[in-house]
Amino acid sequence: MNIVCLDMEGVLVPEIWIAFAEASGIPELKRTTRDEPDYNKLMRFRLDILKEHGLGLKEIQATIAKIDPLPGAKAFLDELRSITQVIILSDTFEEFAQPLMEKLGWPTIFCNSLEVAPDGEITGIKMRCQQSKLTTVKALQSIGYETIASGDSYNDLAMIQASKAGFLFRSTEKIKADHPELPAYEEFDDLLAAIKAAL
């Protein structure tokens, strides 16, 4: 039995923080897991900037409401879900992901949640578990599933490497150069074909 584990941002939808950086005019918020391997360090950096500028959940959600899935992402996901089980594994937050999941036809997503003060300030994050993508892939394997994984960032590498087949999708030149052993694709049709071949 197979289950496909996909990253969300950069793979199925645009990077939320990049979109918010552009909407808010704060270029520092363009830093993502494609640039920073340490996720906790990245989130502390982001929350400090939000606090400094007096920005909270409401402002980020207003930007997310205007984000659409990447062109071809929903058709790719629909076809994939018609032939196998799919879970989106993301380090994003329920409060960010929900409107995007609606636009993608409500696929299953495992992600984290935010700690939000009554005034809307994001005060912290609640991670579902440590190394959530790798931990989830190993848990799925422990109950009899073989995993196939794809993502674009540093925080996807462990789940890709732990799976029976794993692929980079629209990744950075640095990550691709550092991991020449991982097949890398730029188009949904090519990724779909690679996953089908691995099933």
Task: Produce a short descriptive summary.
This protein is α/β, with parallel strands linked by helices. It has helices at residues 16-24, 39-53, 57-64, 73-83, 94-103, 132-142, 157-162, 173-178, 188-198, and strands at 2-6, 85-93, 108-116, 122-126, 146-151, 165-169, 184-185. The chain has a domain at 2-12 and 70-112 and 129-198: Rossmann fold, CATH 3.40.50.1000.
Secondary-structure map:
Blueprint: E1 2-6, H1 16-24, H2 39-53, H3 57-64, H4 73-83, E2 85-93, H5 94-103, E3 108-116, E4 122-126, H6 132-142, E5 146-151, H7 157-162, E6 165-169, H8 173-178, E7 184-185, H9 188-198
Parallel strand pairs: 1-2, 1-5, 2-3, 5-6, 6-7
Antiparallel strand pairs: 3-4
Helix pairs in contact: 3-5
CATH structural class of the domain at 2-12 and 70-112 and 129-198: Alpha Beta
The percent range for helix content is 40-55%
Distinct helical segment count: 9
Report the mean per-residue pLDDT as an integer: 96
How are strands sequenced across the largest beta sheet? 4-3-2-1-5-6-7
In sequence order, what are the helices and strands, one letter per element? EHHHHEHEEHEHEHEH
Q: Tell me the Rg in angstroms.
A: 16 Å
Rough outline: globular
- Measured between the Cα atoms of the first and last residue, the distance is 9 Å
Strand content: 15-25%
Largest sheet: 7 strands, mixed
